[in-house]
TrEMBL record:
<comment type="similarity">
    <text>Belongs to the inositol monophosphatase superfamily.</text>
</comment>
<feature type="binding site">
    <location>
        <position position="123"/>
    </location>
    <ligand>
        <name>Mg(2+)</name>
    </ligand>
</feature>
<keyword id="KW-0963">Cytoplasm</keyword>
<protein>
    <recommendedName>
        <fullName>Inositol-1-monophosphatase</fullName>
        <ecNumber>3.1.3.25</ecNumber>
    </recommendedName>
</protein>
<feature type="binding site">
    <location>
        <position position="273"/>
    </location>
    <ligand>
        <name>Mg(2+)</name>
    </ligand>
</feature>
<dbReference type="GO" id="GO:0046872">
    <property type="term" value="F:metal ion binding"/>
</dbReference>
<dbReference type="InterPro" id="IPR020583">
    <property type="entry name" value="Inositol_monoP_metal-BS"/>
</dbReference>
<comment type="subunit">
    <text>Homodimer.</text>
</comment>
<dbReference type="GO" id="GO:0007165">
    <property type="term" value="P:signal transduction"/>
</dbReference>
<dbReference type="GO" id="GO:0008934">
    <property type="term" value="F:inositol monophosphate 1-phosphatase activity"/>
</dbReference>
<dbReference type="InterPro" id="IPR020550">
    <property type="entry name" value="Inositol_monophosphatase_CS"/>
</dbReference>
<keyword id="KW-0378">Hydrolase</keyword>
<feature type="binding site">
    <location>
        <position position="146"/>
    </location>
    <ligand>
        <name>Mg(2+)</name>
    </ligand>
</feature>
<dbReference type="InterPro" id="IPR020552">
    <property type="entry name" value="Inositol_monoPase_Li-sen"/>
</dbReference>
<comment type="pathway">
    <text>Polyol metabolism; myo-inositol biosynthesis; myo-inositol from D-glucose 6-phosphate: step 2/2.</text>
</comment>
<feature type="binding site">
    <location>
        <position position="143"/>
    </location>
    <ligand>
        <name>Mg(2+)</name>
    </ligand>
</feature>
<dbReference type="GO" id="GO:0046854">
    <property type="term" value="P:phosphatidylinositol phosphate biosynthetic process"/>
</dbReference>
């Protein structure tokens, strides 16, 4: 499928001064699914690796995703110390920086080198005109900087998000919340973790005891904004304990997985915002639905992720749905 974008579009620029961050050096991964081999002969080790590859075919890809996400996070943290050149994509509030583009190139080129047959869907490659179609190929679904607006303003929630799908099914997700220095991971059938600690969604069933997270998005069409606000008003007035937004869908989903909030929903997100988080939430015991209660679809740009169906169904009743064009719509070339 599509490869790395050689050049990203050049768009309108302005400059912004931001507060600088002081960040500690990253710590090594603490026991994230590390393979422990007993001391034994080379032959047995080789045999063990072969068996392991068959029973756990995506382990190498997963380990690589964790390593490259951490490396990307270091690049993002370093970039926070400097002035950022801000460019725009679909509208004046859809921001992109050279860091988004650079980090995506770093991730894709490192994956290509190790796994030359794999495919990619990356936020900035798609912005540069690459197709956003999921095939049966092993596919890396990448948001190099989830929370670009946060990054531009120095609001301290920014994540590298890497989802991985095979035969159109998500196999693992890695979200590195790089300013907090938290590594979230999920692998199909193998659980979800944050820095090696197992994650579990909250067991709250009473919506009146819940905390919900959502976003205002980057659509400034008045009718859409009214629907977003009317939804939030209705949810607040249920009442719920609180309504929050971190500015990154990937981080929001990790907060559902961690049990810090009961649910995250948004219309207008893209597949790269939620592919990794989807695995992390489900592996932590949560569920994913469409915002109308139907089955969730990665390309639909709609997401309801919750700790349980009682909470999800109650929220779905209050959502004023608005249209968002699917990610996999093939645009005709003019
Ligand atoms: O563009 P990036 O990668 O920063 O991602 C988006 C967020 O993930 C959304 O939840 C959020 O609502 C915003 O639309 C934001 O753009
Ligand atoms: Mg994003």
């Amino acid at each position: 499928m599509q490869g790395v974008a050689s050049t990203f579009p050049s768009v309108s620029r302005c400059q912004i001064e931001r507060p600088s961050f002081k960040c500690s050096a990253p710590t090594p991964d603490q026991g994230i699914n590390r393979l422990k081999l007993p001391p034994t002969s080379l032959q047995t080790v080789t045999q063990h690796n072969k068996t392991n590859k068959m029973s756990d075919p995506w382990k190498e890809s997963f380990d690589h995703a964790v390593a490259v996400a951490r490396k990307a996070g270091v690049v993002i943290r370093d970039a926070l110390q400097n002035e950022v050149k801000v460019m725009t994509k679909s509208s004046s509030v859809d921001l992109v920086t050279q860091t988004d583009q650079r980090v995506e190139k770093i991730i894709i080129s490192s994956v290509k080198e190790k796994f030359p047959t794999h495919s990619f869907i990356g936020e900035e490659s798609v912005a540069a005109g690459h197709p956003c179609i999921l095939t049966d190929d092993p596919t890396w679904i990448i948001d190099p900087v989830d929370g670009t607006t946060n990054f531009v303003h120095g609001f301290p929630f920014v994540a590298v998000s890497i989802g991985f799908a095979v035969n159109k099914e998500l196999e693992f997700g890695v979200v590195y919340s790089c300013i907090e220095d938290k590594m979230y991971t999920g692998r199909k059938g193998k659980g979800a973790f944050c820095d090696g600690e197992k994650l579990e969604v909250s067991d709250v069933k009473d919506i009146r005891k819940s905390m919900i997270i959502s976003e205002l998005g980057s659509n400034r069409d008045e009718e859409t904004v009214s629907k977003i606000f009317s939804t939030m008003k209705k949810i607040l007035c249920i009442p719920v304990h609180g309504l929050r937004g971190s500015g990154t869908a990937a981080t929001n989903m990790c907060l559902v997985a961690s049990g810090a909030v009961e649910a995250f929903f948004e219309i207008g997100i893209h597949c790269w915002d939620v592919a990794a988080g989807a695995v992390i939430v489900t592996e932590a015991g949560g569920l994913l639905l469409d915002v109308d209660g139907g089955p969730w679809d990665l390309m639909s740009r709609r997401m309801m992720s919750a700790n349980n169906k009682t909470i999800a169904d109650r929220l779905i009743k209050e959502i004023d749905v608005f249209p968002a064009e699917r990610d996999d719509v093939v645009k005709s070339k003019k």
